[in-house]
């Protein structure tokens, strides 16, 4: 059984992990300073999530679908809402490599939980979405007392799923980031901007101003400017 490290009032949003993995300054602007500016990309993503949460439960043959399922982990100090958690009926009982299963109220047999996170656009170059999905799975594991081997990301552009294997490396990265999230929250300091190519796709680009604010004059140039001396 997981050891509780955080109280209920200390839980932080799972969605913050994706922001933090992308950029610590973006995370701070959104979650510390309350800054947000919606662009076309974020608006499309919001609509996609709203559609995923329209129905609470649904059955499709050997798959039961729960939408908008509340999640939490007292071990990692995280809370949030899963877009979709599918429960697949297990038909391989007795096999030694059978995935961990749960019993569902009012349903016969054993079921394998399978989280699905909905995203607009295409897969990102970094593991930001995978970290958020893994955090959801870690919450489900703690809540249900099971081990979840894989999950999926559904992207709006190609309109298809990408399966994500929840291996040790991704789990360790997600857990380290959860600790970093709590550390930065306690510090309450917004990091200085550092411009990178990925900044161009950020909805907070105009508010963050990484190109302008990250350019700091050298000590020599500052002294020359202060003394009115031209550059040589």
3D architecture notes:
Mean pLDDT is 84; it is low at 39-44. The protein is globular, with a radius of gyration of 22 Å. The longest helix has 20 residues, at 168-187. 36% of the residues lie in helices and 22% in strands. The chain is of the alpha/beta class and 232 residues long. Strands 1, 2, 3, 4, 5, 6 and 7 form a 7-stranded mixed β-sheet that branches. It has one domain: Lambda Exonuclease, Chain A.
Structural class: alpha/beta
Number of domains as seen in the coordinates: 1
Helix content: 25-40%
Number of helices: 8
| Spatial shape | globular
Helix and strand layout, with pairings?
Blueprint: E1 12-13, H1 15-22, H2 24-31, H3 40-52, E2 57-60, E3 63-73, E4 78-89, E5 111-119, H4 128-144, E6 150-155, E7 160-165, H5 168-187, H6 205-208, H7 210-213, H8 219-227
Parallel strand pairs: 1-4, 5-6
Antiparallel strand pairs: 2-3, 3-4, 4-5, 6-7
Helix pairs in contact: 1-2, 1-4, 1-5, 4-5
How would you describe this structure in keywords?
single chain; 232 residues; alpha/beta; Lambda Exonuclease, Chain A; 7-stranded mixed sheet; 8 helices; 7 strands; 36% helix; globular
What's the quick description here?
This protein is of the alpha/beta class. It has 8 helices and 7 strands, in the order βαααββββαββαααα. Strands 1, 2, 3, 4, 5, 6 and 7 form a 7-stranded mixed beta sheet that branches.
């Amino acid at each position: 059984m997981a050891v509780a490290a955080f109280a209920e009032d200390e839980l932080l949003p799972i969605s913050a992990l994706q922001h933090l993995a992308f950029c610590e300054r973006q995370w701070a602007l959104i979650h510390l300073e309350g800054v947000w500016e919606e662009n076309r990309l974020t608006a499309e993503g919001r609509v996609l999530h709203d559609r995923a949460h329209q129905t609470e439960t649904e059955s499709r043959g050997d798959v039961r679908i729960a939408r908008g399922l509340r999640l939490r982990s007292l071990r990692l100090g995280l809370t949030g809402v899963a877009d979709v958690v599918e429960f697949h009926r297990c038909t391989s009982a007795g096999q030694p490599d059978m995935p961990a299963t749960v019993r569902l109220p009012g349903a016969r047999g054993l079921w394998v939980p399978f989280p699905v996170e909905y995203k607009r656009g295409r897969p990102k170059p970094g593991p930001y979405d995978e970290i958020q999905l893994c955090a959801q799975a870690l919450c489900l594991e703690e809540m249900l007392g099971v081990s979840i081997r894989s999950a999926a990301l559904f992207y709006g552009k190609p309109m298809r799923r990408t399966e994500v294997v929840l291996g040790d490396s991704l789990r360790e990265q997600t857990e380290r980031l959860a600790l970093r999230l709590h550390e930065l929250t306690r510090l309450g300091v917004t990091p200085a901007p550092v411009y990178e190519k990925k900044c161009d796709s950020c909805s907070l680009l105009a508010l963050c101003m990484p190109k302008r604010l990250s350019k700091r004059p050298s000590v020599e140039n500052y002294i020359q400017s202060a003394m009115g001396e031209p550059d040589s």
